[in-house]
Give the backbone structure.
Amino acid sequence: MSYILNIETSTDICSVAISDGGSCIFKLEDFDGPNHAVILGKFIDEALSFIDDHAQPLDAVAVSAGPGSYTGLRIGVSMAKGICYGRNLKLLSVPTLKLLCVPVLLYKDIPEGALLCPMIDARRMEVYAAVYDRSLNEVREIRADVVDENTYKEFLDKGDVYFFGNGAAKCMDVINHPNAHLIEGINPLAKNMFPLAEKQIAEEKFEDVAYYVPFYLKDFVAHKPKDLLNMGNK
């Protein structure tokens, strides 16, 4: 059983949640952003007050690792590291694209053998995307894709592929394949982080609080999004 503070700031949505033993027991969400610089500190204060009021020992802080908004991720990671320093806690990083898959796997009817393609919007017809199976095994690594009709054809020709996330809708007319399915309304939210965060605790996959950054950001700052291969946790 783990008591985890979860922080998600990879898109315009800002969210914080507390999970305990496999369930979300506290959450705050703002969909009117990007307001991370203003909202996140207030959310964190309320979450920590909730924890202190219930006299529960906090085990770790989990933060969304990207890909996503550079500014949003920087704010989220900075806040997470500050809490870890102040309270001597473990730091966990949750890949944003895997996080997007959690509500799909939990609440949608996905057929056996189908693939999942979460997408974070970049610009024009560019998205950050990966391809996973239903066990969240990586079928294709995270890339910055300029989407055309052939981008995911090798997977679509073999069977159903489900596209979702804030970059998916704009791609569907271009992809235009009978095996391509759009799932709307899927956002990266802190309340869905706990299955991935708890798995990392069980596997003792903790980050170095002093040196951690979402490790694709160095390339992002260098303005080379199309070269961003191997982003996210390995």
Q: What stands out?
A: Confidence is low (pLDDT under 50) at residues 220-234.
